[in-house]
Amino acid sequence: MRNFLLGILIAAVAILGYLYIKNSFYSHQSEIKVSEMISNQMQQVGKLIVTEGHFSEVITYKDAKKFYLDILTAEKKVIVVVNAKATIAYDLSDVIYTIDTDTKTILVTHIPAPEINIYPDIKYHDLEQNYFNEFTTEDHNLIRKKVLTQLHSKIQESSLSTNASNRLISELHKIFILTNTLDWKLTYKETPIQSLQDIETILLRK
What we know:
This protein has 206 residues and is of the alpha+beta class. It has helices at residues 2-45, 137-156, 159-181, 196-205, and strands spanning 48-67, 72-91, 96-100, 105-110, 115-128, 185-188, 191-193.
């Protein structure tokens, strides 16, 4: 009788052990599949976002040189009219993240900064120059540099920059919705993302 009860006990322990191992195995396999799905979705989100706009600028460039003990002055000036195409791009393939299956967390450690590209069409009007002070390559380089600096500031203050940020936020929302739906967590550096609003707050802070 004692051996019979001992046999039943051993059998019960064996069955419970088998069920535990089986459940653990399938649970582990399930987490691996979820992890693979998240990884695939992250790769799909990781695309190039490009926002394009057009800008105009008018600049007056002047320069003067003095000769003969500052008695004579040789001046040159030109009106510069610029029409430019500008793009703001976010390459989301540069997002750096890790997937932690143990804590069911996506850890994002880097979000790329925007790349601003400007393609100016520069035209000169009412050019005036002096034999002793003609336009040179250095002048053209200075004009181009001044044009790009002013356009860069104008772009950053424009709706183009806002639209580009909104598109970035929209793509990051997809990551949050994915993790939230699968009962996973999303973290940027050491900050947990608990709502869509948190994404915008972090982007403004970074």
